[in-house]
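Quick illustration, no need to memorize.
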Amino acid sequence: MTKATDEGTVIAVQANYYWVRLRNVTSQPLLCTRRTRLKKVGQKVMVGDQVRVELPPSLLLHGRSNTAPVPMVAEGDLGAIAKVYPRRTVLERPPVANAEQICLVFALTDPPLEEWQLSRFLVQAEATGLEISLCFNKQDLVQETDVKFWGDRLAAWGYAPIIISVENRWGVEKLQEKLRSRISLMAGPSGVGKSSLINLLVPGVEQQVKNVSGKLRKGRHTTRHVELFDLPHGGLLADTPGFNQPDLAVEPAQLIHLFPEARQQLTGQECFFKDCLHRGEPDCAVGQDWERYEHYLTFLEEVLAQQNPENSRETDTGLKTKTGSDGQEYDEPKLETKKYRRHSRRQEHQELQSFCEQTDLDNLQEDWE
């Protein structure tokens, strides 16, 4: 007997279960497992994947129309992902498939806008190969001269930031137009208003929003998983866990191409040395007369150190190197790993409860198969 199927988009992943937004079921997402044959061939399922789902028997599909009743998913019903369609793009951190653009959100103040942190996020976003939309929030808390200063400065970097205020909804329409009919990834440091912005862009979504820490003036991390949200005017938006220092997982020779202002200088001309790393070598096409040159040198040293960990100070001295908000490096001792720490009773109870809940879902899966 041929099983009823439908196609859809994976909007969330929880352990070995997947929430899928089906094309013909609009009332709620369907909780699914992954077919055993996909596991055997090592086929992973990611947020953003386009998939074919085998539907549970109790789920009846209706055609899309204004008069047809909205199909409902009975509580406890599980679908099964039978096929994952080829991906157009893949990101590992965060794990998202088929994303088309990255929307970087920063605050003009509270927390203060740090140029080194901003530059680092931009470089890592460039490394994904996706289109970048840069958004500056909290316009209502700064002077117009500050807005112009950062707008002109970012133009020299090769970007045209969208200035908004979530508080008074100023400029949000322009951002909505950029997100329309696309799968977009929202990222940025903590405390800049990403969760509040998603609440505004996606009416009804319940994102936890916490106040910015007054002591350190750094945002508390509020989002802990990747999830896709339906935008009212079409498109999907993924929020990602907040982080303050994204990794620079790039090759040294590739790094210079992640700076638009330097990339433009390399258009139509080449350096004298093919392995030039643009650190003052003779006849270098990039040169040193651009604002983020010091950023480039600092990031380059970090990338080179990652390729030669045996030569790093962390291995030899027990120190770890950190980069401050001004871009300067400093050392601090590494903490000893707690190898023999016992699990608390509370943690053991939580693990047992999680095991029991998963066992129930597995029984449902066996009944369905």
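DSSP finds ten helices and 15 strands in the chain.
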